[in-house]
Amino acid sequence: MSIHPTAIIDAGAELGNNVTVGPFCCIEKGTVVGENTVIGPHVCVMQHTTIGPGCRIHAGAILGDLPQDLGFKDAVSHTRIGAKCTIREGVTIHRGAKPDTTTEIGDDCYLMANSHFAHNVKLGKSVIIANGALCAGYVEVGDRAFISGNCGIHQFVRIGRLAMVGALTMASKDIPPFFTTRSSSLNGVAGCNIVGMRRAGMSSADRMQVRKAFSILYRSKLNVSQAVETMRATFTSGPVLEICDFIKQSKRGIAGSAGEEAEE
Length: 264
What we know:
Elements (H helix, E strand, L loop, with lengths): L1 E2 L4 E2 L4 E2 L4 E2 L4 E2 L4 E2 L4 E2 L4 E2 L3 E3 L4 E2 L4 E4 L12 E4 L4 E2 L4 E3 L7 E4 L4 E2 L4 E2 L4 E2 L4 E2 L4 E2 L4 E2 L4 E2 L4 E2 L4 E2 L4 E2 L4 E2 L7 E3 L6 E5 L1 H6 L4 H15 L5 H11 L4 H10 L7 E2 L7
Parallel strand pairs: 1-4, 2-5, 3-6, 4-7, 5-8, 6-9, 7-10, 8-11, 9-12, 10-13, 11-14, 12-15, 13-16, 14-17, 15-18, 16-19, 17-20, 18-21, 19-22, 20-23, 21-24, 22-25, 23-26, 28-29
Antiparallel strand pairs: 27-28
């Protein structure tokens, strides 16, 4: 274990084996830092925060601070960060707003500089968030989704698995799995995240199924309910059923068409 002499670590903090803590860090009581985690300079790890093993946390990150919620009553709530996450400079992650609730960052996430994760955000595994992106309270992001730079994600919005949100997108509606938004758009789905699906190892047949689902949902002039019914009648298995289930569970509604489809 390597602790810089200027770091302040409360006796009630639990640090695993081979943890490195840089200069001028503050680690409060009631925190857990997993083994082999490296914490850079000027990082604050606040109460009720758990960091998984093998993480790398860069300068100036603030993890587990109080939620920016006027209804917060100083209750005990939590922040949980998974294993092997990279958290770059100036990232802020706030703990849950209600008693015994949690803000959760999944394993292998990559959170770039100055991105923000408000109370009760839930990120899946291997999510990438680019510089300056903002996730408001209760946002949920599926596994391997990619949120580009300076995006704003409205509270309670869900981003589906393997979706890609283009730079400067403002999302106040749900973005279904496997789809991508056009940059600088408001709730505009532009096509399918072909690159992301390839990288995830999805077969050509599954990618084609997603493209057909996109056409039904955004090109057929059916309303959303009719499109989902058509997709379920057309496909009995595969990723389209995940899209249908995602839409069924949407409370804010899904993003509409941006009028442009990505090419295979």
